[in-house]
Amino acid sequence: MRRESEILRRRVEIRWPAEAEAARIAELDYLDPTSLMKNETEASMNASDDLVRTLTRTEYFTFGFGAMVGVGWVVLMDDWLSRGGPGGAALGFLIGGILLLPVAATYGRMVREGPDAGGEIAYTEGVFPPVAGFASAWTMVLAYAIVCPWEAVAVGNLLSRVFPVFQAMPLYTVAGRVMTLPRLAVGLALTGAVAWINIQGIRPSAVFQKLLTFALLVIFAVFTALGFARGHAANLAPLFARPGAGGVALSILLVMQIVPYFMTGFESVGKGSEEARRGFDPRDFGRAILAAAVIGCLFYVTIVLAVSFVFPWRTLVTEKLGTEAAFARAFGSQAVADWILFAALLSLVKIFNGNFVAATRMLFGIGRRDLVHPALARVHPARGTPQNAIALMAVLTAAASFLGDAILVPVSEVGSLAVGVGWFSTCLADRLRARRSGRSGGREAVTAWAGAAVSAAVVAMKITPWVAGSFSRAEWVAFLGWSALGAAFWATRPRKLGPA
């Protein structure tokens, strides 16, 4: 036990140096007996050493941006514009992105001070009650995990726009949406491919992510420039989906409600923080996070305006067209649409990979603390990857993908609540740690409290019944189902050192 306590103390000093110093000055033992750290053993403490340290600042950016931008900008453009119109959608993403900058700044600081694959479970460790820390971390796992089946389903949706065979051979119907054999098969194949790449190691996954991200950005720059050059301002009218001042506000609000889901990912940088190459500057975590958040926000604003500029948005909404169809009609060329769909396919695979990495690292970090079965913390001896966490995510993704298109919009809503919980817990934990170490004021306090307020508002918008766009019954079922799974893990967790 003495050896274990010394290991824990050394970890605190490494991960949270400011707090450890404050504890030493006060001649207090920093180790909180009610914290999750009391359950960690020497073996679990050294488990992270088996992860391969190879990631660079550029690769962290591509994981953050890549985990955020998927194919919603193609397959859900009609939904975005029906909510807000071009003005409401662009302002919704812009305002939402700006409001999330304090959250991004807080994450940058937390990752810099305490790099840990467990993310939220590490940030709340020692300052939240164990069950509250686990609940916030488990909910954040959902924010990443839920994206994976979304993309597994969306790949069939995307390919069916080019290859009619993907609409053939219907199997069954879910909520009025038909699932076909080719679409199910390609979703399962993509899930298997992403899992296989991640089993090979973080280096192949990072190179793969980097290539996909920069290829997307180059193609995106080309077709949006063409759109603004070819389009007409008259296509933007009316700017908002609803008339009057109240309609303008509601148009913006309805889009802002989904921004957290589509901006989720910048904070995923922290989940790979234990895999940074040796000599990595910890400040670069925060730089990568902020860069991903800013560029992701501008990406969404730009694509909304480009699509609305190149093609009448009301027609797009009425006919339920995607981004590629709007460009094809405007240019009279299927080749333009094919390039957009190719870019979307690249984007789909990279967001799948980015969120898969984030979810598996969180499961690894939680498993290392024995808060779920410790087998999830097992690392492949040769490849340095959390093999069991990868296998579990692959199985969960494959199972959920059987639900088909019916999950697309509900998943967006559930993801918004899940990430709001994670962001709020991190911002609050930052202030609790700061208070404990005697540095509770200044600019850091302003950003953290602002981030906490924004995150709380995100959660409130989704759970308050009378707010437009709040949870429906299907979304509550999905969220409570995940919570029940987490409760089962918590109830059956190992208790080596006594009850938590």
Output the keywords.
single chain, 500 residues, 22 helices, 2 strands, globular, disordered N terminus
Helix/strand structural class:
mainly alpha
Helix content: 55-70%
Averaged pLDDT: 83
- Main beta sheet strand tally, sense and closure: 2 strands, antiparallel
- Note the overall shape: globular
Strand content: under 5%
Sheet with the most strands: spatial strand order: 1-2
What is the helix/strand order? HHHHHHHHHHEEHHHHHHHHHHHH
Q: Can you count the beta strands?
A: 2
Task: Write up what this structure looks like.
The chain is mainly alpha-helical and 500 residues long. It has a two-stranded antiparallel ribbon with strand order 1-2. Helix content is 68%, strand content 2%. A hairpin with a 2-residue loop joins strand 1 and strand 2. The N terminus is likely disordered. It is built from 22 helices and two strands. Helix 18 packs across helix 19.
